[in-house]
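hey so i finally got around to running both of the ones u sent me last week. sorry it took forever, my laptop kept dying halfway thru and i had to restart like 3 times lol. anyway pasting them below in the order u listed, first the sequence line then the structure token line for each. didnt double check formatting much so if smth looks off just lmk and ill redo it

first one:
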Amino acid sequence: MIVISGQKDVETAVSLLQAGVHDYLVKDERTKDLLWNAILKIREKQNLKQEIEQLREELGQKYDVSSIIKGNSPAIRKVFALVEKAVRTNINISITGETGTGKELVAKAIHYHSDRSKNPFVAVNMAAIPASLVESELFGYEKGSFTGAISRKIGRFEEANKGTLFLDEIAELDLSLQSKLLRVLQERELVRIGGSEKIRLDIRLVIASHKNLLEEVKQGRFREDLYYRLMGLPIALPPLRERSTDIMVLARFFLDEFCKDNHLPLVPISSQATDKLMAYSFPGNVRELKSVMELAAVMCDGTEIRSEDILLASETENIYLNSADKTLRDYTIQVIKSYLSKYNNNVALVANKLDIGKSTIYKMLKNNELSLS
């Protein structure tokens, strides 16, 4: 609604705007231009609203669980059923599964089909953040609260307010910070580092870990009270070796998606390539299968995916060794980069797998030799 009036009274204009009027114009020689501009702004605002709604709808479709997690095996159908239950309420969700099984994608599917879908989804990989920075990353800080705090920083909890916060690899959270996290969850409020203002929180929490949290509790590495606060509705994602009937469904899906995105012809998968895929255990799970099929699309001759186009872990290592001359540093970076991709940027896990210090990886990140993108 636009009101045009000869009244110049400010109080009248303010009261009308407060009542929901879009604009209040005073009649003069510029009325026609002002009215035209007001209508243009309304149309622009409506177009933006439509665009936002369309993007939200696309996001919902993109993260539809049945389009993300392909398959018809009994194990994966159980996951579908649990996700349907999860979207109906605001209960906390705990997702477990080996690296590469799609934990973050399931978390997004739950968020974008819940009543919080119009609010933020914020993901934090606890294993990718140095321990000294976790508290400020999660809870934020005030300007001047410590050396280098040149301005206020909003933490991830505040970013996710009214929406969903996804804490991946929660088992990597230091014990000293677990108590603070528990307090924030119990009180539903936080105080930024160096501040005094209490910030109320309305957050749905989704956590994930490739570790058995109950075992971590027994070993004294995870607080029992926090474990029960976080557990909520548990969703266990099966490894690919336990849903072998889904391997070719996923392989076909990843191959077609990659070919479409890269304007390559859609090609069949030969019976020999199928046998090779079905005989492999896929320790990297769905993420590894996706990488294998994308590489196969690049390696094939354009007529079909052959057995020799399916390059598994040991075979891709040989590609590295047979490639152009590189320094030992180059190979080191390449191997660490490959492991970070394979293990979802879990710095602690990669350091453990490669038997190196976490500081080595953090130093490479700082020097821009690696990235977590």
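and the second one:
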Amino acid sequence: MATTIEEVVTRIPDWQTRSVTIVPLIGGLTNLNYRVEVDGTPYVVRVPGEKTDLLSINREHEYHNTLAAARAGVGATVVHHIPDLSVMVLEFINGPTMNGEQLRRPEMAPRIASSLRQLHTGPAFVNEFNMFRTMEFYLEIVRKHGMTVPSGYTEYIPVAGRIERALAARPLPLVPCNNDLMAENFIDDGTMLRLVDYEYSGNNDPCFELAHICNEADFGPELLEALCLAYFGRLDSAMVARTWLYYCMANLGWTLWGAIQHAVSEIAFDYWDWTMIKWRRLQDKVESHEFERWLKEVQRG
């Protein structure tokens, strides 16, 4: 049976004699999120969605990595943790939640890069995240349960191997990454962009992090290059190519994520439309004349 927010509230002794107000937060694609005010002090409570084990989410890893991100000064502080419910009560970060349009402003690239570097140079996470292995996990789930994927998807599966081999020629050191920085996971506290939601976190190639942001916030080539410049301190064609290849790989993997969510999630969201957006972005880049150049560029370094 799914955990309710009321059950969570009863599990926190400090809240039992206080005034508690609960307001649902919109925008979560995997979980149910709430703003809970306790005697006027706001917190964020994240209640896991149904069947998230099918999405390769490890809640113990998420908890430890959330603590590490907070120590790095970029994540939210964990106020309470209820392990058997996989529930965290988090600091409420005051400030606007970002959207794609806001992140696409030219002046935002240095701010995004600054927050990423703070996370990436912070305490190491307890696990690794590898989209190639995650995609294989998702593919097995889809096949096992007979879930629908976009027509023609299986023809693109070998693309993952080509990308992985090219990237492996000159690997980068792994750093602690969020790996799921959609625009809504950035919160502007007035001083810096804070980064939240560590469900898919793990030590990873930093270019995957850059690629995921560019994908989710719909960055074009100029903005992708601006983010690479701000992050690395120089415009390196190999790092730009590496980011574009991870952009392709992110869409290849998240297309399967969307197909699984379309089949199992009870959250009121059009997962199939989301899946098709990822699928079309993958096709657009893989079929472009630049794809082969990116494969060669990352191997030359």
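quick thing i noticed on the 2nd:
The mean pLDDT is 94.
anyway thats it, ttyl
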